[in-house]
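Quick note —
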Amino acid sequence: MKMVSALLLLSALLGTPAVPSWRPSCYKRALKDHDCHNIPDGTEDLRQIDDGLQDHFWEGKGCEVICYCNWNELLCCPKDIFFGPKISFVIPCNSQ
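Predicted structure written out below.
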């Protein structure tokens, strides 16, 4: 009980929340038998964002998660985390 009280007091003094945030975070996905240059169209549920943004893909049906391909793995993040809230709204969304 003393430990919990000490942690709450310490977190209040440092200005950080005592409970971790449930904000969506980034994650990595391995590309099985593929690399960034041979992802077949319509597979892995990925769509290239734009010709000007090589190796950047939308994941899923919407335009909320962006993946960056680095050789044979994807780093996927919510668009606001990946580009920041001031830039993410100008990235073209092709949800088809």
